[in-house]
């Protein structure tokens, strides 16, 4: 009989379903094949014209039916696709899930395509007066719903039959990890025996790209798109904006075993700590990220020596990779130079609100497959960052535990610890 | 019977057109026949409840921080500061560093001038996507993005007030406010948190914030009316207001150990998602009421009803069906504050419990008097479009 409670007496939380979509494809099989082959999903932008833009590449998901229909429809489709894969794999009824929904998704705004079409459907007045007058005459709710922050989750709740009021959240680039953390916590508190946690982001619009670009956050290495994202390299110059989704079915180990489900992995611990230093930069001593990693380890009941692999946040911005190295080397000490630490973002770019969930999905697969996906484009190592980044080629390795980091604007730091087996 | 892990309220921060702070709100709201503060001209044909005059310096000491925010984030940071002050936590590094935070947020203000210029130019250009790139790359203020991001209200609270235990932002209109309070309470009850800052803010004085309602025709037009009396009037029934509400929720034991005043205890906080298109709203509200462990006898209800025709009619019908309930629709006096609506309702309920008195009617035509001493008060937030929640706030 397996131990059903963790070191703090809480129900152990298992993963019984995983779904993923990135620029590399739909589903775990295609993504895993590409990821372990070191293939990049970064490509030239074709969704909108790139005139006047400094960055003309991205990891957009261009192959779904909603890919050209705006941020809300695409985010919904990404979430639905990943969740369907996860719920199917878990062997649960995909119309009657019966547990709560936690959705990490980007903040919504009225798309420019809709702004233009509303505005130009009339000639009277100008500016916001005209928009408001046209708006109140609309007969359909479609455009309205793209502007409601709760509507994507509401549709998903209908689609999957999740229970109660769905929670939509944002902790910026840590959102996906927070969605998982909320699910884990709900199960540990005994509020439910299963939860659906999704991170989805289809918001790579021109305006989003320009906003990040104005903050100098994006790579401008446009010429060879698949080479642009180069975490931990000396010549890294920013992240690559991307889209994707990851979904996990979380269940108490007890409920999962009772129904004979396959256990894909264990969510061992979650940790977080907010940073009060600056809106986009980390405290120079890295103390909040360090505290988040340590909180996740403590929550998992594991020591530093018991982490086999780190799935890095690894965005490829000068700031993140330097600070992530500082915090990891503080926590793991001398061992840091010999621990495998790779960044999925070298291949899929930064999927923003989805990143924490996508990378948790890949972390779980890393353990199951005993293969560590590489950090590609590692041709010019940053001498100040001495890490085993699993350079350029996958590595076969037994991985029993993973630490996955997510850090975001607004001082967000969330870390997840996953294990292959229950204790 | 009280338990050490009860969830109690030890700090309240409020801002609305009526003023700021719990005392100012209590004084105004208990004055019979108080008139709302309205502005019917700036956004005509819509009426709004505008922000009062605020000296931001009182809660956001650094001008540099103020400049990094637009009004929405300033308002939220300000209301959060009021709550922290009220709970005796502000400036206490140790308590702030271990304090968790759940913020209910929408998005921040866009640059209306830039948007209008792009829309105007779109009338004479067919290459609108190129126009967009051209204008946005040259005219957007780079840091404006940070004033718009939903989670940056929480981010600013961390920076300004040093609340850094954890930081989570929930989105989704009134439902986000309900989930924020519900989740914070669950964390405290389970021992995950000892003290949590929870709340939200809404800044309606921006055309995009009105557009968010009006794309479905939700806003009331024409002469102002109390929230219960907008059925059949021109428009959709919602009159918005700028405001914010933050609460410090604390484990009873934790609050007692530092000798703090306790306003009230949180009873059950329940939430739901009615299938409204299938006519499920009345039944869902009734179900939530049945889960809230309502006490026997006369019950004061602080209703966050928005005025939206269908949702407000449903709520009124269910509340009216219980003859013990005397409801107060506070949107009559503050306007609808979206994500802040439920935290605001909880705050007003807690004040009534703490002061051992009810509020006079906010609408003499529809509401009925309540003369008892409220030992428990119901707080509701039925979303104008989706999601529902309510909670029972009890004497500590």
From TrEMBL, chain A:
Gene3D superfamilies referenced in this protein's UniProt entry, alphabetically: 3.40.47.10
Keywords of the record: Transferase
BP GO terms, sorted: fatty acid biosynthetic process
Keyword Coiled coil set for record: no
Pathway participation: Lipid metabolism; fatty acid biosynthesis
MF GO annotations: 3-oxoacyl-[acyl-carrier-protein] synthase activity
Keyword Nucleotide-binding: no
Annotated SMART domains: PKS_KS
Any one annotated GO CC term: cytosol
Domain Ketosynthase family 3 (KS3): start-end pairs: 10-420
NCBIfam families for this protein: PRK06501.1 (NF005076)
Family of this protein: Belongs to the thiolase-like superfamily. Beta-ketoacyl-ACP synthases family.
Record-given protein name: Beta-ketoacyl-ACP synthase
Source organism of this protein record: Mesorhizobium tamadayense
Lineage: Bacteria, Pseudomonadati, Pseudomonadota, Alphaproteobacteria, Hyphomicrobiales
Automatic annotation (TrEMBL), chain B:
InterPro entries: Beta-ketoacyl_synthase, Ketoacyl_synth_N, Thiolase-like
Annotated GO MF terms: 3-oxoacyl-[acyl-carrier-protein] synthase activity
Residues in Beta-ketoacyl synthase-like N-terminal domain copies: 5-255
Keywords linked to the UniProt accession: Transferase
Superkingdom of this protein's organism: Bacteria
Tagged with keyword Transferase: yes
GO biological process: fatty acid biosynthetic process
Protein name, UniProt field: Beta-ketoacyl-ACP synthase
Native source organism of the sequence: Mesorhizobium tamadayense
């Amino acid at each position: 009989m397996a131990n059903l409670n963790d070191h703090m007496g809480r129900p152990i939380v298992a993963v019984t379903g995983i779904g993923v979509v990135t620029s590399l494809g739909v589903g775990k099989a295609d993504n895993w094949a590409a990821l372990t082959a070191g293939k990049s999903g970064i490509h030239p932008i074709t969704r909108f014209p790139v005139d006047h833009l400094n960055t003309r590449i991205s990891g957009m998901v261009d192959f779904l039916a909603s890919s050209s229909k705006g941020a809300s429809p695409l985010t919904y489709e990404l979430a639905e696709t990943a969740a369907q894969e996860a719920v199917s794999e878990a062997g649960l009824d995909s119309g009657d899930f019966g547990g709560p929904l936690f959705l990490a998704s980007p903040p919504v705004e009225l798309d420019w395509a809709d702004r233009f079409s509303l505005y130009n459907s009339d000639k009277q007045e100008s500016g916001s007066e005209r928009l408001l007058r046209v708006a109140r005459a609309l007969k359909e709710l479609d455009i309205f719903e793209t502007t409601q922050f709760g509507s994507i989750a509401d549709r998903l709740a209908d689609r999957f039959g999740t229970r109660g009021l769905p929670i939509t959240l944002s902790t910026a680039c840590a959102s996906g990890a927070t969605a998982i953390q909320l699910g884990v916590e709900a199960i540990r508190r005994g509020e439910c025996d299963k939860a659906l946690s999704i991170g989805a982001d289809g918001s790579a619009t021109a305006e989003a790209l320009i906003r990040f670009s104005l903050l100098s956050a994006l790579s401008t290495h446009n010429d060879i798109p698949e080479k642009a994202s180069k975490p931990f390299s000396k010549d890294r110059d920013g992240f690559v904006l991307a889209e994707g989704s990851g979904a996990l079915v979380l269940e108490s180990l007890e409920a999962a075993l009772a129904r004979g489900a396959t256990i894909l992995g264990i969510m061992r611990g979650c940790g977080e700590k907010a940073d009060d230093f600056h809106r986009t930069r980390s405290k120079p001593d890295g103390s909040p990220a360090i505290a988040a990693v340590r909180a996740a380890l403590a929550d998992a009941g594991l020591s530093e020596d018991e982490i086999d692999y780190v799935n890095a946040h690894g965005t490829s911005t000068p700031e993140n990779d330097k600070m992530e190295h500082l915090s990891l080397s503080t926590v793991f000490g001398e061992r840091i130079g010999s621990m495998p630490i790779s960044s999925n973002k070298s291949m899929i770019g930064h999927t923003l609100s989805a990143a924490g969930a996508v990378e948790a999905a890949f972390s779980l697969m890393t353990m199951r497959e005993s293969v560590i996906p590489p950090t590609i484009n590692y041709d010019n190592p940053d001498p100040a960052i001495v890490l085993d980044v699993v350079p350029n080629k996958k590595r076969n390795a037994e991985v029993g535990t993973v630490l996955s980091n997510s850090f975001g604007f607004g001082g967000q730091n969330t870390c997840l610890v996953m294990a292959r087996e229950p204790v | 019977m009280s338990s050490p892990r009860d969830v109690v309220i030890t700090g309240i921060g409020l801002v609305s057109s009526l003023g700021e702070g719990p005392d100012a709100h209590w004084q105004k709201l208990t004055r019979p026949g108080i008139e709302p503060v309205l502005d019917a001209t700036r956004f005509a044909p819509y009426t709004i409840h505008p922000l009062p005059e605020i000296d931001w310096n009182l809660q956001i000491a650094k001008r540099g921080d103020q400049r990094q925010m637009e009004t929405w984030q300033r308002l939220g940071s300000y209301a959060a500061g009021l709550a922290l002050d009220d709970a005796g936590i502000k400036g206490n590094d140790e308590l702030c560093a271990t304090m968790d935070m759940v913020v209910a947020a929408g998005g921040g203000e866009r640059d209306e001038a830039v948007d209008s210029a792009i829309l105007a130019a779109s009338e004479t250009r067919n290459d609108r996507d190129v126009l967009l790139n051209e204008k946005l790359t040259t005219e957007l203020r780079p840091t404006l993005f940070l004033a718009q991001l939903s989670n940056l209200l929480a981010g600013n609270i961390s920076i300004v007030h040093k609340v850094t235990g954890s930081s989570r932002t929930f989105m989704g209109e009134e439902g986000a406010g309900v989930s924020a309070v519900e989740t914070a309470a669950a964390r405290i009850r389970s021992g995950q948190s000892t003290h949590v800052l929870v709340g939200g803010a809404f800044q309606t004085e921006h055309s995009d914030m009105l557009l968010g309602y009006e794309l479905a025709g939700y806003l009331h037009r024409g002469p102002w009316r109390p929230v219960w009396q907008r059925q059949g009037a021109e428009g959709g029934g919602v009159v918005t207001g700028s405001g914010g509400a933050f609460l410090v929720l604390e484990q009873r034991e934790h609050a007692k150990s530092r000798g703090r005043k306790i306003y009230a205890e949180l009873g059950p906080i329940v939430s739901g998602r009615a299938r409204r298109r299938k006519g499920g709203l009345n039944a869902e509200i009734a179900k939530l009421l049945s889960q809230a462990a309502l006490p026997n006898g006369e019950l004061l209800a602080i209703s966050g009803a928005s005025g939206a025709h269908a949702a407000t009619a449903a709520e009124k019908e269910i509340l009216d069906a219980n003859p013990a309930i005397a409801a107060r629709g506070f949107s009559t006096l503050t306007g609808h504050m979206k994500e802040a609506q439920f935290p605001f309702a909880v705050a007003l309920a807690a004040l009534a419990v703490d002061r051992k008195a009810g509020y006079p009617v906010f609408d003499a035509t529809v509401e009925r008097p309540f003369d008892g001493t409220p030992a428990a008060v119901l707080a509701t937030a039925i979303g104008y479009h989706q999601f529902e929640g309510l909670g029972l706030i009890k004497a500590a």
